[in-house]
Amino acid sequence: MTQVSIIGPGAMGSAIADLVRRSGNSVELLGRDDTGKPVTGDIVVLAVPYGGVAGVIAQREGQFDGKVVVDITNPVDFSTMDSLTVAADGSATAEIAEALPRSQVVKAFNTNFAATLSQGSVGEQPTTVLIAGDDAGAKAALAQIVTDAGLRAVDTGSLSRARELEALGFLQIGLAAGEKIAWTGGFAVVA
Amino acid sequence: MTQVSIIGPGAMGSAIADLVRRSGNSVELLGRDDTGKPVTGDIVVLAVPYGGVAGVIAQREGQFDGKVVVDITNPVDFSTMDSLTVAADGSATAEIAEALPRSQVVKAFNTNFAATLSQGSVGEQPTTVLIAGDDAGAKAALAQIVTDAGLRAVDTGSLSRARELEALGFLQIGLAAGEKIAWTGGFAVVA
């Protein structure tokens, strides 16, 4: 039994919480009123918008040490919808890993719309959670939860692949915002 | 009837040539022995590896003026499989557009494995050709050929979206090279 803490009870945080419950593991979902509660999970999902991550890290200083920290953000410049707000050769995940040197930081879920996590499929394909990170154990622990919940998980490689996952997330959000795809669809991974 | 010239008779060039034939348009496929033949198409597909593009442009100076030029490349550093070889905030397409200021340059096909162009599907979904470029007419002309061939085409936006399409292409090639997906599969677009 793995305890997963999810910070941010929005659409994505709630969908990931349901996924963890379906996997048979336990979950705590922490909102704005829970800033006084320390995180208890071995895996912590930062399910807040990119702009809120630095604040959460500052507020909960030290609480993420030794834990797997999952970054799900898409650092899209929503004012222009024409670029990401992170360094062109970097990623939000790289920034978070630098801010949390005593955590195992992984990227995941940023290429999955919330609805596809809940419905378990994208079109006829099982929803696939793409994961990137430098710690194999951290990635395997997260992948186990995903697969136990009936979804698919694919390890895309090192933390540097977060750059491409964020590009994919950005592209997918742009297509949905432009009504080229539905928020219930997007990129399915055909093995 | 649109005439499409394809430079590079490899797996991708041949698959795109078949697609053009299926669309009811005409195609010429130019190989290494055809460097003396000028391109005759209104649309020219550069179906050579990224490293070969500059040579083709130099060799055929002026022949692309006024034409739609389609860049299908994935400028992956194949020695490391860990990055692209273009500027982090740029793309191969941006480089080609700079080299061909009198052409309408679009990105397309780089997120489609050759087999998925031939089979017309990725899993249960019709194969979707993602297109990016600054000239709406050029994108529409290419999209018409793709849809007339029975595939789907999605306009992903301006030429700057080529950066994300190249990130997606890189990710997909890495997953196939790592045997996480098959070369007959990859990312399907669920509308």
From TrEMBL, chains A, B:
It comes from the Bacteria. InterPro entries: NAD(P)-bd_dom_sf, STEAP_metalloreductase. Signal peptide: none annotated. This is NAD(P)-binding domain-containing protein.
